[in-house]
Write a structure and sequence with these properties.
CATH architecture of the largest domain: 2-Layer Sandwich
Order of helices and strands: HHHHEEHEEH
Number of helices: 6
Strand content: 5-15%
CATH topology of the largest domain: Alpha-Beta Plaits
């Protein structure tokens, strides 16, 4: 399953965004949601992860581990370790070696557990482009279904979160569900996200990181 974001905010003294914008929506939806899912009111009305006290974090993590442990019949451990001092992560991709197999797409789905049914949720998309056009996103094909890859006359570019130094998704999120850690990782509080997709609209590479469903890409070759 996906790990929750590292404990910052209340745990480290940072000031988290004002949650007042969510209050009305939360109260309108909570009654129906609690009745339909059986989850506790505390789960629906909890603060942003960055606002939780250490004691609240421990209770929340214990609840998650117990819930998913019972659901899947396995021992589930959820980590909350923060950024490591003196560590800065980067991202690199050699386009000359990409053959368009989409194995990265399905490896990501399996690792992060964001997709078990159709339509699937993919955080990585692979674009097929014509060599004659060069890098032209507007004329790329996301849903190519070739018998074999790479196809003659084409090249491929995986598109995902680039972990920007100055991420526009953080600036545009109206509820502060997205932020950047000190080690360079862009994090998301999935429970705090309201699904408005402002992050997708602001992203220059359009990785499709919203937790909403998207059209399914063909399986890896």
């Amino acid at each position: 399953m996906s790990q929750d974001p590292p404990c910052t905010g209340a745990c480290s003294g940072e000031t988290a965004p004002d949650p007042s914008r969510r209050t009305v929506v939360q109260f309108l939806a909570a009654g129906a949601a609690v009745a339909s899912t059986g989850c506790s009111l505390e789960s629906f009305f909890r603060k942003s992860f960055r606002e939780l006290s250490p004691a609240q974090v421990r209770r929340y993590i214990a609840e998650l581990e117990g819930r998913y442990g019972r659901k899947y019949g396995k021992t589930v451990t959820v980590g909350t370790a923060g950024p490591m001092e003196g560590v800065k992560f980067g991202y690199g991709l050699d386009l000359s070696r990409c053959v368009g197999c989409r194995r990265c797409v399905y490896a990501c789905a399996e690792e992060n557990n964001q997709s078990r049914k159709n339509p699937q949720i993919h955080w990585i998309r692979v674009l097929e482009m014509d060599k004659a056009r060069g890098v032209d996103v507007n004329h790329s094909d996301i849903y190519y279904d070739a018998a074999e890859v790479p196809r003659p006359g084409h090249f491929y570019m995986p598109v995902q979160c680039q972990q920007c130094d100055d991420p526009p998704c953080v600036k545009t999120c109206p509820v502060g569900a997205t932020w950047k850690e000190k080690d360079g990782i862009v994090a998301i509080d999935y429970d705090w996200c309201i699904g408005c997709r402002c992050c997708m609209a602001a992203c220059p590479t359009e990785p499709g990181t919203s937790t909403g469903p998207s059209r399914t890409s063909p399986p890896p070759k």
